[in-house]
Amino acid sequence: MTDGLYTAEVLRTRYVTPLMVRVTLGGPGLYGFAGSGVPDEYFKMFFPAPGRTAPTMPDVVDGRWVYPPGEPEPELRTYTVRRYDAAAGELDVDFVVHEGGVAGPWAVAARPGDRVGLAAPHGVYRPPADTGLRLLLADATALPAVGRIIEELPEGARATAYVEVAGPAEHQEFETAGEVEVTWIHPGDGTGLEQVLRAHDLDATTYVWAAGEAGVMRAIRRHLRHERGLPAERYATLGYWRPAAEEWQRRFSRVADDVRAKVAEARSSGKDSEECQDEFDAALEAAGL
């Protein structure tokens, strides 16, 4: 471990559903790993370069990651801590199985002894103390976080979850002390997470947590903030992925400096984090992103 970076090895794998595989990590390189205590906590995962059995891990220099000269930088992806057992030294990560990309195929092929790297986790799920209903909106990529949120609910806490998955075979069950209602959404149902949210009543004690495809999350955040007028402490939205991500990143690179300059200007003018996010979203939309 180096300054919040860890290496871990695969202990075992199993399919939770036909399209979700759980990889259990452990080993001495995970010693000292400390969770944030937030149930949607996520971290950067370092995957081996093609032909390698372990990822190149950086050193931390002045707070930045610095890779050894000439070494291939690993592919980085963000994943949720589905379960962490400090006593056993085990960490579970759930992967959606799909063609292409890096992480899904790696998880399907993972065998005991395979190694990956991890960065220290953090999360954003923080319902206020007076929260009545927790409204959870997620697609399959955010299901691991939803599962942990539900499982860690205190006795009597109320939650309603809407989760988009490929079909009934992808449904999961969760043990919880809370009072929970889960509604599964499938392709062809004629509705989506934003539509569900627009039809849902929210009172002054509701806390909304939403995660999934970045464009959908942008629309959900805009609805919560600008149409419903929820204060920032009453919602959290996370964009986990984008379709055609490489093409999006290529297009973003053309306007990245301008977008970041607008956000920096907003920050320097004293705008809060949500106002800066508004500037970021507006700049992306102006660029056709």
Please explain how this structure is put together.
- With 289 residues, the protein is α/β, with parallel strands linked by helices.
- It folds into 3 domains: 115 residues, Translation factors (Elongation Factor Tu (Ef-tu), domain 3); 109 residues, Nucleotide-binding domain of ferredoxin-NADP reductase (FNR) module (Rossmann fold); 43 residues.
- Helix content is 26%, strand content 30%.
- It has 6 helices and 14 strands.
- The strands form 3 sheets. A 7-stranded antiparallel sheet has the order 6-3-9-1-2-8-7. A 5-stranded parallel sheet has the order 12-11-10-13-14, with helices on both faces.
- It is globular and about 50 Å long.
- The two termini are 38 Å apart.
- 29% of the residues are buried.
- The model has no long low-confidence stretch (mean pLDDT 92).
Keyphrases for this structure?
289 residues, alpha/beta, Rossmann fold, 3 domains, 26% helix, globular, FNR_nucleotide-bd
How is this fold's topology laid out?
Blueprint: E1 5-17, E2 20-26, E3 42-47, E4 59-61, E5 64-66, E6 75-80, E7 83-85, E8 90-96, H1 103-109, E9 115-119, E10 133-139, H2 143-151, E11 158-164, E12 179-185, H3 193-198, E13 207-213, H4 214-227, E14 235-241, H5 245-268, H6 273-286
Parallel strand pairs: 10-11, 10-13, 11-12, 13-14
Antiparallel strand pairs: 1-2, 1-9, 2-8, 3-6, 3-9, 4-5, 7-8
Helix pairs in contact: 5-6
Q: Radius of gyration, rounded?
A: 20 Å
pLDDT average, as an integer? Answer: 92
Based on Cα principal axes, name the global outline: globular
Number of strands: 14
Low-confidence segments: none
The biggest sheet, with number of strands, parallel, antiparallel or mixed sense and barrel status, is:
7 strands, antiparallel
Counting helices, strands and paired strands, the structural category is alpha/beta
Number of domains: 3
Work out the helix count: 6
Q: Which CATH architecture of the largest domain is right?
A: Beta Barrel
CATH fold type of the largest domain: Elongation Factor Tu (Ef-tu), domain 3
Question: What's the name of the CATH homologous superfamily of the largest domain?
Answer: Translation factors
Strand order of the largest sheet: 6-3-9-1-2-8-7
The portion of residues forming beta strands comes to 25-35%
Question: What share of the residues lie within helices?
Answer: 25-40%
Q: End-to-end span in angstroms? A: 38 Å
Element order: H for helix, E for strand: EEEEEEEEHEEHEEHEHEHH
**CATH class category of the largest domain:** Mainly Beta
